[in-house]
């Protein structure tokens, strides 16, 4: 399966609590930290919810 690298590039301060929870569920804990996930519909949906806070790259 394809993999994507998700990096938080903007602060979660001031974001809705659901967006903060989504970042936590993705495994992103700090700014400029990256995680790698396999591409699934669930992960794509989570990324779409916080697309203004993260940068996504294919690995």
Could you explain how this protein is built, in words?
By secondary structure, this protein is an alpha+beta fold. It has one domain: Ribosomal protein L30/L7 (Ribosomal Protein L30, Chain: A), CATH 3.30.1390.20. The protein has 2 helices and 3 strands. It has helices at residues 17-26, 41-49, and strands at residues 3-8, 34-38, 54-58. It has a 3-stranded antiparallel beta sheet with strand order 2-1-3, with no helix packed on it. Helix 1 (17-26) packs across helix 2. The longest helix is centred in the middle third of the chain and has 10 residues, at 17-26. The chain is globular, with a radius of gyration of 10 Å. It starts with a strand and ends with a strand. The model has no long low-confidence stretch (mean pLDDT 96).
Total of helices: 2
What's the helix-strand series? Answer: EHEHE
Based on DSSP secondary structure assignment, what is the total number of beta strands?
3
Kindly report the average pLDDT value: 96
Total separate domains: 1
Q: Could you tell me the radius of gyration in angstroms?
A: 10 Å
What key attributes describe this structure?
Ribosomal Protein L30, Chain: A; 3 strands; globular; single chain; 59 residues; 27% strand; 3-stranded antiparallel β-sheet; alpha+beta
Quick recap:
The protein is α+β, with helices and mostly antiparallel strands and 59 residues long. Helix content is 32%, strand content 27%. The relative contact order is 0.38.
